[in-house]
Amino acid sequence: MTLYSPQANGSFLPFDVGALIVQPVTTESIATRISTVVKTGAQTFRIPIVSADPTAAWTAEGAEIAPSDPTLTELIVTPKKLAGLTVISNELAHDSSPEAAKVVGDGLARDLARKIDAAFFAATTVNGPSGVKSLTTTVVSAGGNWSNVDPFTEAQYAAEGAGTTITAFVANPADALLLAKLKAATASNLNLLQPDPTQAGRRTIGGVPLYISTAVTVGEVWAIPQDRAFVVIREDATVTADSSVFFTSDRVAVRATLRVGFAFPQPLGLVKITKV
């Protein structure tokens, strides 16, 4: 009897890793949409932080100008590996059409995006990066109910006091629904939240877009300044297919790996708005 060795391991599907995984993940993930996304080829990424500015002084004509130095520190980010595995039929694996590859990539990308968001809005994640709940941020209380947008205005001004500007609010769907039902006045049918003219279906609070994510804890809304939140993505994302494990069922395992880290150089610029 003639024995035939299984197909060799390797990437044999028509994959463009950037188009299949990296781009859809950054589009799907709320964390990447509200943060500054940085791509790096290095194992670590360093963000310089000026914790104290150099000082200026009124100086008499002809007098020596006193020198001063800024206080500089740095935040070192080490992206952590996020991996996904799916199994597809050999027929789909050998389909050379872009649509077939997209079907494979979309599911992986969606779950990678969900895992990124879950880590971003958490405190700590096993084997993953630490998120916003691990930080000592500014906290604003809504006083027990979402009755008006005053806490959001307070959050905006708190961020401005820290030298930054809120560019996104992120809420759980349950809280977003309660906020969407707020009216401009008693006995009014006019919603307090206004539509975003730049994107259909999205609402704004004080001119700031409101995003929705199930990764956010119910009863909390995060106010994020884009220039104080970083998502660092390693450029060595991979998509690999292997038919050896599922040889007897004529299926192919497709594995995607992506390394992601978070950085928050000024935690007090981020504001957690709590319902209680």
TrEMBL record:
It holds the Pfam family Phage_capsid. Residues 14-273 form the Phage capsid-like C-terminal domain. SUPFAM superfamilies: Major capsid protein gp5. It comes from the Bacteria. It is found in: Virion. NCBIfam families: major_cap_HK97. This is Phage major capsid protein.
